[in-house]
Amino acid sequence: xxxxxxxxxxxxxxxxxxxxxxxxxxxxxxxxxxxxxxxxxxxxxxxxxxxxxxxxxxxxxxxxxxxxxxxxxxxxxxxxxxxxxxxxxxxxxxxxxxxxxxxxxxxxxxxxxxxxxxxxxxxxxxxxxxxxxxxxxxxxxxxxxxxxxxxxxxxxxxxxxxxxxxxxxxxxxxxxxxxxxxxxxxxxxxxxxxxxxxxxxxxxxxxxxxxxxxxxxxxxxxxxxxxxxxxxxxxxxxxxxxxxxxxxxxxxxxxxxxxxxxxxxxxxxxxxxxxxxxxxxxxxxxxxxxxxxxxxxxxxxxxxxxxxxxxxxxxxxxxxxxxxxxxxxxxxxxxxxxxxxxxxxxxxxxxxxxxxxxxxxxxxxxxxxxxxxxxxxxxxxxxxxxxxxxxxxxxxxxxxxxxxxxxxxxxxxxxxxxxxxxxxxxxxxxxxxxxxxxxxxxxxxxxxxxxxxxxxxxxxxxxxxxxxxxxxxxxxxxxxxxxxxxxxxxxxxxxxxxxxxxxxxxxxxxxxxxxxxxxxxxxxxxxxxxxxxxxxxxxxxxxxxxxxxxxxxxxxxxxxxxxxxxxxxxxxxxxxxxxxxxxxxxxxxxxxxxxxxxxxxxxxxxxxxxxxxxxxxxxxxxxxxxxxxxxxxxxxxxxxxxxxxxxxxxxxxxxxxxxxxxxxxxxxxxxxxxxxxxxxxxxxxxxxxxxxxxxxxxxxxxxxxxxxxxxxxxxxxxxxxxxxxxxxxxxxxxxxxxxxxxxxxxxxxxxxxxxxxxxxxxxxxxxxxxxxxxxxxxxxxxxxxxxxxxxxxxxxxxxxxxxxxxxxxxxxxxxxxxxxxxxx
Length: 824
Prior knowledge:
This protein is an all-alpha fold and 824 residues long. The chain has a domain at 262-448. 84% of the residues lie in helices and 2% in strands. Helix 1 (2-82) packs antiparallel against helix 4, helix 2 packs parallel to helix 13 and helix 3 (117-190) packs antiparallel against helix 4 (196-250). It is found in: Cytoplasm, Cytoskeleton, Microtubule organizing center, Centrosome. Its main location: cytoplasm.
């Protein structure tokens, strides 16, 4: 009996341990799944955040580019409207405006509290983007229209002048021929010979016509050259200025790093003028330009699309060769460089550009020195006089001061200092050489001057040099202060912008991480609560089983004690009772297991019901969204059909207009030919002008119709893209609904299977209950029989005791009788 009970307890323990292990494994699997899902969600969110940040950075870069281009184009337009000012003089103002805008914006953003800062920043960014797009589109369209108008005007102007001159000449010839014919007829009627004077007049007229035609051809060729040069300047100037501004703005943080890369790379000159390339004829050649030496100019040279008309080309080894050959007439040369103006203005124009780009300071100073020397020494030098030598000395001193200004400060590293010393030495050598030449020229040109005149001239030279030095020092101090202020403003703005951007990025990232962590914590807490509930239920069940086991052990011990008292007659009954008790314990364990499974299944059914309710709500929401999307699609289809109809109508109108234009053009061309043939005799000038005006009006109408058609086509494309996006969204929602339906079907199948299992278990439980009732009845009968046997045993024990007492009394009597007999 004890061994069977122990085996039964061991079986129960093994079953409990297997259940606990299985539950622990399920919990671990659930935790692993949750961790994997969490990691996947984090990675997905990180990727989305990275993509959004990249898009934001790209949009900010595009916004900055557009703003800078707009400002540069506005400045160029203002300059073109005011007059032909130098290109480099306005770059400093453009930089100051480009820096003052972000500075004011940052100062405004720092004033309000930090609570609504993010929302304001986003709204401002959106507003600025929209405004920039609108302004950029408007400016580009306006500039294109102006350029087209200028080109048309410049193209039509020489033709009109040519036609006017030809008409005048033809009218004169026609008048002269008429007079000559009349005179011939008159003389023929009189019988006289033609006067030789008319032949001489006719020859003179022919010579005049030939001269006028030659002069007109020359003037038209010169005007065409001028127009080409102006067009090239107007086309290249805004592009060059925008590229320079963008390069300066982009390469500001990298100037310090590039200046510390070594003196070997920066010792190479930016552009050396070759002395034997025909500098006197107006030809300049720039060779050996390295893109790494001048990083601020590399983007402007790399963007050579609009500048290909100026003669720029690039080979495959980062070497740009710019050849600009221009041989202007002496009149234009006198207009560009008048006699009373020296080259100091040219040097002063290059100072702000050199201050804004510190990477090419020494090389630009060397270029200035070579340029001034090249301009001062043409191919056929004129005789050097007193004013010319003084002008050369002033120019050379100005170049030396510029080299001192452009030299790097003490905080820019040893490499920059060595480069500055090298540039100063080259500039000093050039200055000394030019001064020697000037002194030789003055000594050769003025050998007849007396002593007091020489002294006066030396005093005048000293005074002029002192004045020039003071002016140069003042300008140098002003430029240094301006450059320092600009550098400080740029640094402060960069630091503030970087700090603000970093803070915003960190805040966005932290807020997103907090939301994700909160959601994950809520899910984990829900799962932990469910796991705790299941573990509590399991613990309660284990405690109940332990109590039942203790009760069974106590009952077994009592039965063992009672069985020890019982004898051979009760052994069979005891065996039966033990067998029945084992069967009862097995049935009880099965009943407890069935109860536990029933509870678990009921809970799962409740959870499944809740999920079904949530899924039903989600499905209803999706259906509502599908209806809305279907309505939107229908409206978009209707709008698309309407737009297509309008497009077809507009295309038909455009086709008709184009056919009409072609017919009118053909008719007009025919009429023009006829009119040109008969213009001298029949058609007046007013009709020609009216026909030209009508033709221009028809062309303008055709252009307007073409623009309207293009706009309508763009609208149709946008609507098609929107409709495709809506269709994609509808497909996605339909796929989601199908997936939810599949999940619901799977859940229903599982529930049906579980319900069938529960029914089978319920039937088994009913059978086991009936068996238990029968066992209880049998146990009751056995207990009654056991009580009867116990009473019988008690009666037999009493009889045994009585018999034992009688035996003891008999023994006493026998002992007494024996003692009496022995005594006798």
